Amino acid sequence: MPKLIHYRQRCIGCNACVEIAFDRWRISKKDGKAVLIGGIEKKGVFQATIRYDEVEENLRVVEACPVNVIKLDGV
Ligand code: SF4
Q1: What is residue 27's predicted lDDT score, i.e. its pLDDT?
Q2: Could you identify the atom of ligand 1 that is nearest to the CA of residue 13?
Q3: Domain residue spans in the chain?
Q4: What is the spatial distance between Cα 75 and Cα 33, in angstroms, rounded to a whole number?
Q5: With 0-12 CB in 10 A as exposed, 13-18 as middle and 19+ as buried, what is 50?
Q6: Among 11, 33, 52, 71, which has the highest number of CB atoms less than 10 A from its own CB?
Q7: pLDDT tens per residue, the chain (75 residues)?
């Protein structure tokens, strides 16, 4: 299964991921950084298994993130 990985500490809250895949990403009102919806945290890194029909838009998210803090594995 495809898996998104978000190295959240280095997120700059630019909103690009939210604009592309709004059902998987949102911006936290608390700290202004992106939240990976459905993500499970381990030592500050969030991971979420996604559906295959989410892969294409999240590949664009990976490309768009200006600080390269999103990875997509298993595709
Ligand atoms: S695109 Fe990257 S830097 Fe911008 S909000 Fe999303 S995770 Fe953060």
Answers
A1: 98
A2: 5
A3: 1-36+53-67
A4: 26
A5: buried
A6: 11
A7: 999 999 999 999 999 999 999 999 999 999 999 999 999 999 999 999 999 999 999 999 999 999 999 999 998
The DSSP H or E segment spanning 73 is: strand 70-73
In ligand 1, the atom with minimum distance to the C-alpha of 67 is 3
Per-residue pLDDT, 64: 98
Evaluate if pTM is beyond 0.90.
yes
Pick the CATH number of 1-36+53-67 from 2.60.40.1240, 3.40.50.1820, 3.30.70.20, 3.30.40.10: 3.30.70.20
